[in-house]
Design brief:
Blueprint (H helix, E strand, L loop, with lengths): L4 E4 L8 H15 L6 H20 L4 H16 L5 H12 L9 H8 L4 E6 L3 H11 L7 E4 H4 L6 H11 L6 E5 L2 H11 L2 E5 L13 E3 L5 H5 L1
Length: 225
């Protein structure tokens, strides 16, 4: 095998985050007696995107920003909802409503006898553990590294150094697979490991650090061999 260690991103790579995000938002808004239009949901996603960009740059603001995105969204909707409580409800919902991307389970199972596979996620611990256990992925990984536990976010080199200290991976035979250029691919570049950009929507690739680009997870099998 060309690669002996794989670092897997979770949301947007192994799991269909867009579906989970939509259902979780709808369920939580309903619980709090709030409705939203499609246009308003798109505005929330933009707010959320900007907050995650800031979290990737400064882990110390994580808790603040995860609440702030909802405070800003509810201000936009002109409704009064407790952002702290809503974030708690939302994290639990994300861990309840999940869906594997096509070939995700098949690829993990096919590679299990041949290489070490680790989950490497910036998502919240409550949500990620719920998803991983619910999909059956939890027991298939050799270990799980969630930034909330690590104390740093992808793409911070310290996040990857932490994993390296725990797993003793060899950078020359390690690859990270993910859908984010700013966290997964940039993180792989910082760590000096190969990268695989999962890009099913064929977004513009603005990174020079992409070793491989795929639009189907099944293609990973040919890359790793």
């Amino acid at each position: 095998m060309k690669y002996k260690t794989i670092l897997w991103d979770i949301d947007g790579t192994l799991l269909n985050f867009e579906m989970s995000e939509r259902i979780s938002m709808e369920k939580c808004l309903e619980k709090h007696g709030v409705s939203m239009t499609e246009a308003q949901f798109e505005e929330y996603k933009q707010i959320n995107k900007e907050c995650w960009k800031m979290i990737e740059k400064d882990h110390s603001r994580r808790n603040e920003l995860m609440v702030k995105r909802f405070v800003d969204f509810f201000t936009l909707l002109n409704v009064s909802v407790d952002g702290v409580q809503f974030n708690k409800d939302y994290q639990k919902a994300l861990g309840t409503y999940y869906c594997l991307n096509e070939f995700a389970l098949e690829v993990i199972l096919a590679l299990k006898p041949h290489c070490k596979q680790y989950a490497a996620s910036n998502g919240s611990k409550v949500a990620q553990l719920g998803k991983l256990k619910g999909t059956g992925l939890y027991d298939l990984f050799d270990d799980i590294f969630i930034s909330e536990d690590v104390g740093y976010e992808k793409p911070d080199i310290t996040y990857f150094n932490y994993i390296k200290e725990k797993t003793y991976y060899d950078p020359d035979t390690t690859i990270i697979i993910g859908d984010s250029l700013t966290s997964d691919i940039k993180g792989g570049e910082n760590a000096g490991i190969d990268t695989c950009y999962f890009n099913p929507e064929h977004q513009k690739n603005t990174s020079q650090a992409v070793t491989y680009e795929i639009d189907k997870l099944i293609e990973v099998l040919d890359i790793v061999k």
